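Protein modeling request. Please complete all fields; requests missing the sequence field cannot be processed.
Requester role: graduate student
Desired output: 3D structure, token encoding
Chains: 1
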Amino acid sequence: MDVTLPVMSVTVAIDAGTTGVRALAVDEAGRPVGLSYRELPQYFPRPGWVEHDPEEIWAAVETTVAELRSTLDAPIAAIGIANQRETVVAWDRRTGEPMHNAIVWQDRRTAARCQRLEDDGHLPLVRESTGLVLDPYFSATKMAWLLAEGGLHAGPRLALGTVDSWILWKLTGGEVFATDPSNASRTLLYDIRHGAWSRELCDLFGVPVAALAEVRRTSARFGTTADGIPVSAVAGDQQATLFGQACLEPGMAKNTYGTGSFVLMNVGTTCPAPVDGLLTTVAWALPGAPPVYALEGSIFATGAAISWLRDGLGIIDSPAEIGPLAESVRDSQGVAFVPAFSGLGSPWWDPGARGTIVGLTRGSGRAQLARAAVEAMAYQTRDVVDAMTAAVGHPLTELRVDGGVSVLDLLLQIQADQLRVPVARPTVRETTALGAAFLAGLAEGIWASTEEVAALWRTEATFSPRAPKSVVDDRHATWRRAVDRSRRWA
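Delivered output (490 residues):
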């Protein structure tokens, strides 16, 4: 007879994303035992501007954690935080009050500033020191805008942080102003080779070092809540996902298929030289070990393409229709869809690219366009993975996947065919929160080692290559021709 052992304690992860906040409880076996979620409003004061209210972020954290705690029968051993990266919050350290709405990573108001910096020759310094590119996606020009045009004044009361720092500050009652390398490495202000804020970059962007958070290890006790619960991990959401997918050895990679896609590959403890078309980021820093680095490819439109088919063209009424419609035909019959609605991300980094549909014939219809949209998700991922494997010098052996669009079996089969490696979907889909929980649990001894964490990862489904390589490569070549036509359009 099976016996279910009682849960001795749980680790809680707070996953503060762009569109919502979730709190997840995980037991010692790595199984979710409770979940609470709240949507988070976004504000668009001008075209291209995207903001959050920091107090609404905190209210969503308070509500989800309280709701989750009311359902738990076991004590909370630790809390871990995962967060939308690059988003900037400014607050008063004396009063704890926000000084401006948070500027979200999607915000483009500083595009002209980034272009001027590149025109003035600063890109090589940025690439070498931070592993990033000059783009309004990252935090530094947002912070500079707040100081120059948002009415903020540099001084001892100013706190400029990413969302993790804001939540940590609130959780600890204003006692701890800190972040970790995975978040700091997304600001354009952190030297990933020396592991510290760069005074040269802070001066370049006009951001006072004194206003920035202390950088601590990703997995460590940062502080405690008012009722004594340790807050023991902080990680950017995509790095937390890489950890939650147990990609703990160099060469292991994951892709999160959401509104966009984020491909991350663990490249070990040696910081690689900048790679054209890709970002280098700190994956995590564990106690007593050097930081682990990752190569990252950011794809701007994945699920966004499905939303456009629904909202822009009206050829589906619900995203759930895309799978059956795409499966109703064997292929796209030559139709290629490049969903570059706001430019192309990795490996192209072309803000002038625009969405393109080519190969239409009189026989093309809803099904072919739906199939082309699904295929585009796999082709974009192949482009990023090809760039990564060329950079590291060895092939991928498996891709682990998550995110809302990963429910599409057709997508994952096409992805396996394109990459020529197995594509694995885990049993636990909340991999971002799972990673934050694992990192917090490691700090508090819930799990003794990363090997123990890796052993908890379980596969729900694996997709292996089936289509002939010649057919796969011909279809990808057609896609690349369509990409060429979409580039530098604007």
